[in-house]
Automatic annotation (TrEMBL):
SUPFAM superfamilies: Metallo-dependent hydrolases. InterPro entries: Metal_Hydrolase, TatD-like, UCP005295. Gene3D superfamilies: Metal-dependent hydrolases (3.20.20.140). This is TatD DNase family protein. Pfam families: TatD_DNase.
Length: 202
């Protein structure tokens, strides 16, 4: 990601930034070694945050790994991208925020990804930034349009991966959908660009 992907992106006119961390669905057996190595990677050029981290099932192991990474993020004063799972969303999001609060990380440095209306009150109550993942089983362009007032602090993303059916072009498609429905260019720019630039300092 920090070498080939950034170079290829630049050749195509894209300035690529990277976040690094241990995802709860991919915790290695020797995860303490990864935690020890994280500061080295966080100092690399192009790294702007720590993530995607968080809880998926809410196990003690996941909680320990999340806490250790949040401590590092606080030390480096970096933003964190935090995962939310498809199941037990209220319970696990609440557990996640309790861990973040116990570490003392600034809420405005936290983006809670895969946000939706079901956990939005928890996110807003903590003061974190909603990550607005555009996909068929998350926030669709239609849901986004009908709830823009509540989503204006959020950051659009595609969560493009091979874990779920998704569309790498979901963000520009969502932006185009909002434009076609006469949404203010200022509002569109806020959730598609400026909120992310402010959060990640880019």
């Amino acid at each position: 990601m920090l070498t080939l992907s950034r170079t290829n992106a630049e050749k195509n006119g894209i300035k690529l930034f990277v976040a690094v961390g241990i995802h709860p669905m991919g915790i290695p057996k020797d995860w303490p070694r990864v935690i020890e190595a994280l500061p080295h990677w966080l100092r690399r050029d192009g790294v702007i945050g720590l993530g995607e981290i968080g809880l998926h099932e809410g196990s003690r192991l996941e909680q320990d790994v999340l806490r250790e990474q949040l401590i590092i993020a606080k030390e480096f004063q970096l933003p964190v991208i935090i995962h939310t799972p498809p199941q037990k969303r209220m319970e696990i999001t609440n557990e996640t925020l309790e861990i973040a609060a116990s570490v003392g990380i600034k809420p405005e440095k936290v983006i809670i990804d895969h946000a939706n209306l079901d956990i939005l009150d928890l996110i807003e109550g903590f003061g974190a930034v909603p990550g607005l993942t555009i996909r068929s089983d998350g926030i669709t362009p239609q849901v986004l349009l009908h709830n823009l007032e509540r989503f204006q602090r959020g950051v659009l993303n595609s969560d493009y991966s091979n874990l779920k059916p998704n569309d790498p072009l979901s963000v520009p498609k969502a932006v185009q959908y909002l434009k076609l429905n006469k949404v203010s260019p200022e509002v569109i720019a806020r959730i598609a660009r400026y909120n992310a630039e402010k959060l990640f300092g880019i």
